Amino acid sequence: MNLSILGGTVVDQTGERRADLRVVDGRVAEVGAQLEPHDGDRVLDAAGLTVSPGFVDLHTHLREPGKEEAETIETGSRAAALGGYTAVVAMPNTDPTQDCVSVVEFVRRQGVVAGLCDVHPSASITVGRAGEQLTPFAELATAGVKLFTDDGNGVQDPLLMRRAFEYALGLGVTMAQHCEVERLTAGAVMHEGDCCSQLGLPGWPSLAEELMVHRDVELVRLTGAPAHFLHLSTAKSVELVRAAKADGLPITAEATPHHISLTDELLRSYNAIYKVNPPLRTMADVEAVRDGLVDGTIDAIATDHAPHVADTKERPLDQAPPGMLGLETALGVALAHLDMALVDVVAALAWKPASIAGLGALHGRPVDVGEPANLTVFDPDETWEVVPANLASKSGNTPYVGVPLRGRVKHTVLAGVVTVENGIATR
Amino acid sequence: MSANRDLRGHAGGGAMSRSLLSIDELGHAGVQRILELADTMAEVNRRPNPKVPALRGKTVCSVFFEDSTRTRLSFETAAKRLSADTMTFAVSQSSLNKGESLRDTIETIAAMGVDAFVIRHASAGAPWLVDNWTNASVVNAGDGWHSHPTQGLLDAYTVRTALNRPDGFDGLRVAIVGDIKHSRVARSTTAAFKALGADVTWVAPRTLVPPTVHEHCVDDLDAVLTEGVDVLYMLRMQHERMTEALVPNLREYTARFGLTPERAARLDPQTLVMHPGPINRGVEIAVDPTELPGAVITQQVANGIAVRMAVLFDCLAAHQDPTSDLERPELS
Amino acid sequence: MSEKRVLTPDDVRRATTRMAHEIIERNQGLDGVALVGIQTGGVWLAADLGAEIARIDDAIPVGSIDASLYRDDIGLRPVSPAAVSDIGFEVDGATIVLVDDVLFTGRTVRAALDALGDYGRPKSVQLAVLVDRGHRELPIRPDFIGKNLPTSGDENVSVTADGVVIS
């Protein structure tokens, strides 16, 4: 099926221009100011809307295999497509862990079967994410894995992390770190600060993240291997990465929508919806993370989409699992809370993460003749509010109920196939 | 049910009842109200038959997820003296391990027709969650490190009666000594004393106070005693704190922060000495409390019943109009 | 809301004196007689009656009782306990004169009777009120009345030593 996408304003790495497109056989075939649809073209109305490369999420928990009651690769893909994503990197803290080719292949295949989004599994750095033995990086790289992470946890042993960086050299893969020194965060349920002191809850000091950021920056300096920092949340972490980049180190970083929009004060409600790792922090941290995105210290917005079954979140804070949904609200949160030009927000959602994920040949491409048609069409101005029951995700743990969002995806196109039309998934 | 209802639990579920979750939510006016009510209840307790029909027909259910015979009995006695019916669920770990969630437990009990829950839970915030799940009153009997409002109230009441200060505690010097960080008693008692105008000082090593501290805080007990203090409140020092490298050993803790015979000798006989109980003899208090002229520890226990009677009555009878007239013929 | 003074301070004093005489006469003396003012309105009146009785004859015990914990409308509408009860004498076998400022539905007196019963078993209980405004809902009748004052249900009656005002 060929497509005509008419009336939109294209925003990509070359700039912003009013243009119509035609998509033929999965690729952009024509771009022009006023195109006529051919017979048999499916027409997507983009009047007043923005057309951009499809978004790429560096950090999604699809929960399958192992926790299918919270989300499956199919429901997660659908949520991704509705959020404007054409590719997601699936985190490896599944059960069994994505630490070997067979599980990685299973996840990739399930993504193909669902056909709503390109699912690119990451693999864990250590077997079973136990922090002891390295996974077979080369074998996994051959199977297409680009990002390695023990996300859910950070690698605690500095020697092991050094070996991981050294072994990764030359394989074209990147170590991605969930920075958390676990001895400093035992029992923590929220950010360690004023709020947690008053509430009498064990806290997660910012230092626990910053110490590991510092450690890995220095390991990169020592080994020369590239590193990517997941979900940075503190002002000092941003400073450390800024200094590392100024020194020319091969480092990239991401931040979540919730870390640019929500603070630890929300935990006064004791509502476990707001419990997440790393935790929501202070307004000063939120502003520093936003500044990091504005000046490019933080390259990408990554959702850390973490579905949890409803009754697990209706528990006291210390018994509830951490994590929030993110795929379907990422655009809306980013445009509502970032003081950035639209093209820069799209960069952080599309081509920059595509490059970090090693997907730059297919995703985040400029909207131009001959390029693969991975596109999203969205209204950058529409304000809306999320209703958990209307989300495609199997779970409902979004922290944004009642929070106004700005920016809403209307259509998503995956390799020339319409996955979302008028805000509704096509399958 | 939306997972994002406002979980702040405003005072009370139903129209004619309210909850007591923390001293902060009670405020200065609420604290005074309860203390005055406690005077009435204390008079009831002095009678040969200490019982009034005030809460007849109401059911009060204690749900204690953490062991505590003393507090539970105190609440049950309070409820019975107000002629309420009582139920007790001492939830054992095993029933929770069988997968019954807190919510399931509460909703099952609520279905049996309960007017008030008295909840003690190891997780901070649990009583707020319960308050959102039920229209019954919820009285917080202790949640994790966070809040134990009836303890704060009975401590304030004890000082009020011992020092005859019904109008407030302006200028009163209070020192709370020990493991502040892990103590819901410290937080609630501090809040209650401050609500009444007292000056509160925390005395503890840095490892035993919360990460950020806005109270006046020192680590030299001897200096505090030299300057003079009206109320000396000693907290329990739990043995578990040793394994978490919070203090090197108990001997050093007692030497620095305990009420040793030497410190007791220097104490002004007018200074009240208080403790939430049970005392770790030889640790936080290393003298016989009966030999301290200012010790009011047993009065704290007795006052606990009067204060809990006041709290239960206040929660279930919903004071809103101090001039309300029983004689108004129609119920409006 | 218009206010109407129906009793002046002098009227109140005369009524108090008359009731004091009636109490002594009805009980053929003051043997075993004690006054108990119902919180809050009956406390000043019990004290005044006690002073008057002491002037005419002899001093008798005067106490006060709070009936809030015995009300029949707890949990149905806002309730506020007035103050601590103070009964410093033996109730068993005594002749108790309950004292209140206004008698209306009778529910307060019923609650006060129950409260009194928790202190002991009196030989008998009599009721003295300054104003009886009618509209009884329970079978309660006063023994000593200052003034009968028919009112409508929605009027407010305020009684002090300075007089009685209807608004």
Write up this protein.
The complex is a heterotrimer of chains A (427), B (332) and C (167). Chain A has helices at 73-82, 101-114, 137-142, 158-168, 194-199, 206-223, 235-246, 283-294, 310-313, 330-337, 342-349, 351-356; strands at 3-6, 9-12, 15-18, 20-24, 27-32, 42-45, 50-53, 55-60, 85-90, 118-121, 147-148, 174-177, 190-191, 203-204, 227-229, 251-255, 300-301, 375-384, 405-414, 417-421, 424-425. Chain A has 427 residues and is an alpha/beta fold. Chain A folds into two domains: 3-50 and 370-425, Urease, subunit C, domain 1 (Roll), CATH 2.30.40.10; 54-356, Alpha-Beta Barrel (TIM Barrel). In chain A, the strands form five sheets. Chain A has a seven-stranded mixed β-sheet. In chain A, strands 11-12-15-16-17 form a five-stranded parallel β-sheet. A four-stranded mixed β-sheet of chain A has the order 5-4-1-6, with no helix packed on it. Chain A is globular, with a radius of gyration of 20 Å. Chain B has 332 residues and is of the alpha/beta class. Chain B has two domains: 23-147 and 304-317, Rossmann fold; 150-301, Rossmann fold. Helix content of chain B is 38%, strand content 14%. Chain B has a five-stranded parallel β-sheet with strand order 7-6-5-8-9, with helices on one face. Chain B has a four-stranded parallel β-sheet with strand order 2-1-3-4, sandwiched between helices. In chain B, helix 5 links the parallel strand 3 (116-121) and strand 4 (137-143). Residues 1-15 and 320-324 of chain B have low confidence and may be disordered. Chain C has one domain: Rossmann fold. Chain C has three helices and eight strands. In chain C, the strands form two sheets. Chain C has a five-stranded parallel β-sheet. Chain C is globular and about 45 Å long. The mean pLDDT of chain C is 91. The chains are: A alpha/beta (427), B alpha/beta (332), C alpha/beta (167). Chains in contact: A-B, B-C. Chains B and C meet through helix 1 and helix 11 of B and helix 3 of C.
